[in-house]
Design a protein that fits this description.
Elements lengths: L2 H16 L16 H4 L4 H25 L9 H6 L1 H16 L4 H22 L1
Length: about 130
C-alpha cells in the first residue's frame, strides 16, 4: 500500500472518530471519541451537539455499510480509502456545524480529541 494511501486512510479515520459509536454493538472500539461527553457543554450546546453528532453518525454508518467497513474490526485502509471522499465531506460538514455551536476553546479541544483518536487508529493499524 502506498504511503499516500495510508496517509489518506489515517486522515479519514478522523472522520470516523469524530462521533461516538454509541449506537454500535461495541461502543468501546478504537474509533470512538465520545466528543459529546468529553467537551464541557452547557445545556443548549449539548442538545445541538448531540443532534449534529447523531445525524453525522447515521450518515457515516450508511457510508460504512456501502463500503463494507466494520467499525469493530481492525482498520481496513483499502476500504477506508475507497470511502475517503464521502467521509471527508461528512467530516467537513460536521465540523462546520459544530463550529457554530462550540466556543473557540471547545473547538480546539474537539480537534485535540480527534487527533488522539487518529493516533489510536494509526497504532491499531500497524
Amino acid at each position: 500500500m502506498s504511503a499516500l494511501k495510508i496517509l489518506t486512510a489515517i486522515a479519514i479515520a478522523i472522520v470516523i472518530s469524530m462521533t461516538g459509536q454509541a449506537d454500535t454493538a461495541a461502543a468501546g472500539n478504537i474509533y470512538n471519541s465520545n466528543v459529546e461527553r468529553k467537551l464541557k457543554l452547557n445545556g443548549a450546546q449539548r442538545s445541538k451537539v448531540v443532534r449534529i453528532v447523531r445525524k453525522s453518525r447515521r450518515q457515516r454508518n450508511v457510508i460504512f455499510r456501502k463500503h463494507g467497513i466494520n467499525p469493530n474490526a481492525r482498520p481496513d485502509f483499502d476500504k477506508l480509502y475507497n470511502a475517503s471522499t464521502e467521509l471527508r465531506a461528512l467530516q467537513r460538514n460536521e465540523r462546520k456545524q459544530l463550529s457554530k455551536v462550540l466556543s473557540r476553546d471547545q473547538l480546539k479541544h474537539y480537534d485535540a480529541i480527534i487527533n488522539q483518536t487518529r493516533a489510536r487508529v494509526r497504532k491499531a493499524a500497524q
